[in-house]
Amino acid sequence: MSAARGDAASGAPGEGDPADAVLRALADPHRRQILRLVRGGELAAGEIASHFDATQQGVSHHLQVLAKAGLLSERRDGVRRLYALDPHGLDPVREVLADLWPSALERLKYVVEQDQQKVAAPKRAGRKP
Amino acid sequence: MTGAEVLTATVRISAPPAAVFPYFIDPALLVRWLGEWADLDPEPGGRFALDLGKTPVRGEYVEVEPPKRVVFTWGVPGRDSLPPGSTTVEIVLTADGPDTVVELFHHDLPAEEFDSHLEGWIAKLDQLVRLGAWAAP
User: Fold this and answer.
1) Nearest CA to CA, how far is A83 from chain B (Å)?
2) Do the Cβ atoms of B7 and A101 come within 8 Å?
3) For labelling alongside A124, which of A73, A106, B74, B107 has CA 20 to 30 A away?
4) Between the CA of residue B79 and those of A12, B56, B58, B71, B121, what are the distances in Å?
5) Is the ipTM of this complex over 0.85?
6) Is the distance from CB of B122 to CB of A26 less than 8 angstroms?
């Protein structure tokens, strides 16, 4: 059982993995609270900050993390920065979910076919239909 | 079924359905491709219990029709977003020449609408990614 096998097929995951970024962004309760605030519609950074005891700087860091992870969209309106939920923000994580069963079924295929070969080792598909 | 989602997955296996079916009902065979521990009572109403890493998956068999169809419920105790009984996994095995085509449908997963299901998603994401990480080759 190797606990930390690398991703041989598609290069290094880790930092660059979009699903990871989404998850890390959601791991913080302040950031989840921000998402709840903006679910009703676009809000300015200042309005969001007013809901928190944290400094404006702290809130703005959270906003950047959420925006980078693709969970928030960001636009400027004069001097204001406005934030809204990005409806595609969860796509990377949905892909992880969508990969659960295909991966498991691929393993099932491997296991069954290995077992079949053991059972039928001597004769190999020589039958006519 | 508004707001619910079905996930599908399929695979073709070089073996007849009768050879594939036991891998969905025999705990020793199931854990070779799904999870590390299983306790299964493969009859309608019977227990379906499986541990995927640290995540307990609990449910019960709904339909068991060897060698072509098996249905069980799927949930995680203590997870509001995915309680036991809340989702259903349906597996259909179809013979195709010497092969079996396995189709899997995971029904009633929380919908993807981000804003209306935000809470459920936040709770579920962690769960899913843990399962996904476990399932990665």
Assistant:
1) 14
2) yes
3) A106
4) 32, 10, 11, 21, 11
5) no
6) yes
